[in-house]
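Milestone 3.1: sequence recovery, worked example.
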């Protein structure tokens, strides 16, 4: 087992050792794309919606260096016709881009990343000699031709570099060129059986076209058939609540409300499971990352943006055109861009049919008010203050006061 190639199945094993909600239907969808023109997949979701767990699941399933049968034997995928065909059949390269962003802060981050991956690949294939002028794609193409085995390439948090470095800088230009060299080059179909990327943002646009327009993209605004594989559905949360003695209605108020494609009701999975572990409902999403950055977007106040945010905090909905956003947090030029950013980050939900956005739940809307007052969500603890019954409808006098506050209006 290597650092980046054939890492084994321990990542997914850890998930199975915890309370696990079966999302293996994703494997069947990805299996159907292997060796086809649709083999390049990018799924973008907001933080803590199960992206990394899904990537580890796919790695465990495809990795030829381990035996993962027992991890999947009792899950939905085991009954799928494609299960045996692809189980542990491929060399898998798995990159978590956040690890490189944490390690390297200079302009040469992409070159350093590639060198580390190449070194690991050559250790796994000692018969392949290092060649001057070769890059990672040269080695992978040569290995695939010599062995007859094509690779599965998985990138978790593909956009970590994009969020760390400004547009039009050396690291960004180098990274986009690296992605194009790896996955848009004509040799990509010779090297890869399938490519799967996850991130918070869809693939960056240049003018009106994606930098990798050969990828099938599944985002918060256009999830396609991937909608149910990330986040928890009502049925899944009802089972979790029953198994753990939790009040489903409270979990629903706090963590439901995301409409993703045809899935009309998606829960924040990380927050649900944290509430289960702590046997307590409150805002957990805010613990998972810095949120002050959205203040700058809201305070731009394009076309009455702040008034729209206040309206949504009061339970209203606002129209939004998501098509113009360039999938770059540093390129935000309009009210619609700001609202689209907040949709991708999970602060707003999006009704694609009616092209409107709204605050999804108590966790997102109510943190600024509920920090002062914790409350339980276990069965038998149903007493609530008047304040709790009113949420998320903010009082009109509070809305009026919020209009004049320059600070953060929307907290996770």
């Amino acid at each position: 087992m290597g650092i980046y190639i054939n890492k084994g199945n321990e990542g997914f094993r850890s998930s199975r050792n915890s309370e696990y909600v079966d999302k293996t239907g994703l494997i069947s969808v990805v299996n159907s794309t292997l060796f086809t023109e649709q083999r390049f997949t990018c799924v973008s979701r907001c933080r803590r919606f199960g992206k990394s767990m899904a990537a580890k699941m796919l790695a465990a399933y495809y990795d030829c260096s381990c035996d993962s049968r027992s991890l999947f034997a009792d899950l939905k995928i085991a009954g799928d016709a494609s299960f045996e065909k692809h189980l542990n059949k491929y060399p898998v390269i798995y990159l978590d881009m956040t690890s490189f962003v944490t390690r390297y802060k200079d302009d040469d981050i992409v070159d350093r990343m590639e060198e580390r991956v190449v070194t690991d690949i050559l250790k796994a294939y000692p018969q392949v000699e290092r060649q001057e002028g070769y890059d990672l794609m040269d080695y992978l193409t040569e290995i695939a031709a010599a062995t007859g085995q094509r690779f599965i390439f998985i990138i978790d948090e593909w956009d970590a570099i994009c969020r760390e470095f400004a547009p039009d800088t050396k690291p960004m230009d180098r990274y986009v060129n690296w992605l194009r060299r790896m996955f848009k080059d004509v040799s990509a179909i010779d090297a890869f059986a399938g490519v799967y990327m996850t991130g918070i943002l869809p693939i960056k646009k240049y003018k009106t076209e994606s930098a990798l327009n050969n990828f099938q993209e599944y985002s918060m605004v256009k999830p396609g058939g991937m909608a149910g594989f990330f986040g928890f559905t009502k049925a899944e949360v009802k089972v979790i609540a029953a198994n753990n003695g939790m009040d489903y209605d409270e979990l629903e108020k706090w963590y439901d409300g995301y409409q993703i494609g045809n899935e009309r009701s998606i829960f924040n999975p990380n927050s649900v499971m944290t509430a289960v572990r702590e046997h307590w409902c409150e805002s957990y999403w805010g613990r998972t990352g810095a949120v002050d950055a959205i203040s700058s977007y809201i305070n731009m106040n394009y076309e009455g943006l702040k008034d729209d945010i206040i309206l949504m905090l009061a339970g209203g909905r606002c129209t939004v055109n998501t098509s113009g956003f360039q999938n770059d947090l540093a390129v935000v030029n309009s009210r619609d861009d700001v609202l689209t950013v907040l949709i991708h980050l999970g602060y707003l939900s999006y009704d694609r049919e009616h092209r409107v956005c709204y605050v999804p739940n108590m966790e997102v809307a109510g943190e600024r008010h509920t920090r002062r007052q914790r409350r339980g969500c276990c069965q038998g603890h149903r007493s609530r203050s008047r304040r709790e019954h009113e949420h998320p409808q903010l009082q009109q006098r509070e809305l009026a006061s919020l209009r004049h506050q320059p600070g953060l209006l929307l907290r996770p």
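The first helix runs from residue 10 to 16. The radius of gyration is 22 Å.
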